[in-house]
Predict the structure.
Amino acid sequence: MTKMNRPIEERESIVVKFVGDSGDGMQFSGNLFSESAAFAGNDLATFPDFPSEIRAPQNTIAGVSGFQVHMGSAKIYTTGDLCDVIVAMNPASLKANLKWAKVGATLIVDSDAFEDKALEKAGYSSNPLDDKSLERYNLLKAPISLLTKESLGDLNVDSKTASRSKNMFALGMLYFIFNRPLKPSYKFFDAKFKKDPKIAKINKVVLEAGYNYAETVEAIESVIHVSPAKLQPGLYRNITGNVATAWGLLAAAEKSQRGLFLGSYPITPATEILMELSKHKSLGAKVFQAEDEIAGICSAIGASYAGKMACTTTSGPGLSLKSEAIGLAAITELPLVIVDVQRGGPSTGLPTKSEQSDLYQALFGRNGECPVIVIAASSCDNCFHYAYMAAKLSMEHMTPCILLTDGYLGFGSALFRDPKMANMPPINPPIVKANDPTYKPYKRDPETLARSWAIPGTEGLRHRIGGLEKEDITGAVTTEPLNHQKMVNFRAEKVARVANYIPEQEVDGPAKGDLLVVSWGGTYGAIHSAVQQMEREGKKISHAHFHYISPLPKNTEKILKNYKKILVCELNGGQFVNYLRMNFPMPNIHQFNKVQGLPFMINELTEKFNQLLEEK
Amino acid sequence: MMDFVNNTVERTTVQLQKADFESDQMVKWCPGCGAHAILAAVERVFPKLGYKKENFCLVSGIGCSSRFPYYVNTYGIHGIHGRALPIATGVKVSNPHLSVWVATGDGDSLAIGGNHFIHTIRRNVDINVLLFNNEIYGLTKGQYSPTTPMNKVTKTSPHGTIEHPFNIGELVMGAQGTFFARVPDNDLTLMTEAMFEAAKHDGTSIIEILQNCIIFADKAHFGITSKENRDEHMCVVRDGQPILFGANKEKGLRLNGTDIEVVELGKNGITIDDILVHDRYDPNPGIHIMLAKLGSPHFPRVFGIIRSAMFPTYDDLVEEKIRLAQQDSPIKKMDHLLKSGETWEIK
């Protein structure tokens, strides 16, 4: 390790973005950089930003892939609006991402990649590295391609392999700038490339070359230090929302002793849950990759009838296809977890971008009177908790539960403190014992109104259920008018009573006041940060972030009545706001919406908050 | 006499009777509907299989056929249109110790559920499918189905259909099916035999039952299965036996090059040794497809168990993969997974 010969600049938080061509290994270097931040004890959040095409044409804007890391010494809630550092491997990636750079941000570019053809493909009429258009930034032009090749001089490496490892040169430079040790990455290379030690060696050499280069470059005037965050003691990892969701489902399956069954079909951005659960056969998970979305959910309904903790995972268009089957699970009163990792819609929409526009569909998107439980996760790490709760509520109340996450949560990552199974809440599904003489298919628990779960193979409990309306208690097929009314009421009341089993809604900030900001789902980080900023400025503002949507927490109306103005912020046209208006008609519910496939920016939120506070 | 069924379904210690499977629900099919005979066959076969009565699970989709689970006293789930097979797959994969049966129709499984039909067969999930083929949509009152013959006049084809119907056996084998039988609804013996063999077979068993819809497609199968036509137009195959038909079994099927032809014993020097001998266990489906496709005007329709080839089942492979993973992986419970991978301790 070389000696530090620069002044140290202390920063509370830093946003770094790696951008390049789809094949440039930006996800790989971004992931390694976030691991190094995690090992240094920072809190962090990451988000990969990639096109829906696997390999769009080289050096075009369409082919730009990125990975953003936000790390800090205080709690990190978002992946960061604007970047302090951008590492750009080609002109197209610089062009596409410059709008995300703070004024004065450090831009590290591979100057070798800024040749005429690539500039033209990116739509530059002159080279931005020479034409002074980047004067507002701290531009670091490094001949990364050339230096990478030179550093590998002794190793007899072909030019393709050399070109592929230039991302490690850039990473090495960042390691110097952020004073990160190289050794953990060396260990990582040894493990990852166990079968090909030469590749491990190449990565090490190039990483070190980048580090040494940064040390000798005068343009780097100081190194940046981000102190460790004060985190609760425990075992930590960096986890994506999709993996956390998968693990939450596995945890619920183990706790309930029902065994997990997933019936699913690949769809962006939910596929990683299916892939993750496929890995865990040793935990008894049965994963069925079906021929389509409908077969996915129907197999899960069969599995649920057969006594499994059944789930299906999808995104918006897939949820549309599953609508009829959700109705079947609702009328048969079987437990079923439906995970919807929301993306931009309608139709195929924006598959790799995020939105909160499936809320109406989750609440209302079925034929007939068909309420189900709807809950939403709000951070990558709490996808674990809410997936667990979706399964718990669904099984204990014998009704489907839709868990809403979104592409940002699913693909993004955050620190996750590993829980212990012993500390997870118990799950007690109403399973009927063999030969129970009092068993009737539609007899209900007087408290929850849940019917009980009689599992095929159990002696003395043979019964039939199905999509036709059933007689109360006996479960015989009937179209009798008053019975239908009664069963519709039961199913609605059963979901409503879930409110007795979920926590009351909490409010950050004063319990009464001028402005309550309301949000739900994946926007928590941005809105919480914006509210915090307002508080620092001395403004009186409160925030209620909802995780339980159907039913709403029991104290929801009481909370809303304590504020002069309510502002509901959502990444859709105004779905939760209308749901609140429908439930609690009040004239003072305002809305702030954005449907651009982008998260909220903190400054656009504070601007709106200030506007509402100032208007009389 | 039917022989013993051997699989992982738990067996009963008492001899079950037909009454053990009779449900208390009123059977609401039209009088004279072929479905009544299918129900009778099922009530005859289930007690003979020797499974505990709690280990049967009947699954259905939508249509006249799909009311079936309500009429048999087993575990049962009446699903949504076309989706009986994925529901049944979920049941069987979740609990391979159940004997899972599907009641479905030509609309339910070949039109709206066509995708699930081919994929379930391709996977060879161990479920038994009773496919009621009445060549019409009955419950919606008489529209043409994927098996309605060309030119047939129905409520939605007042000028005759212009669609080529599926041959179910050909479709099953095209999807790599391992078991296919064709039976008429007016032959209880043949129906029960096919159901028993389907239960014995490991894998997806498709039984095409030529069922009469007395209201909307009455006598659709009359030209083949009626008493007066049966001898000339029905040819029942039996494993290991030459394929013969006719009132006195005087006709047979002979393989001539790559074609099948009808020959008469004693004519042109044809002897019993020239006749094709049925091998339902042949892994190669070539002859089975040819047999399934035969029909008027030049050939009889082939009935009986046309194919029952041995291939691994999806549900067995699921169990095997889990067994191996549990044997090899250090992650035996959730707490192990939560501690695995790249982690660090903060004190």
User: Anything to note?
Assistant: The domain at 513-614 of chain A is CATH 3.40.50.920 (Rossmann fold).
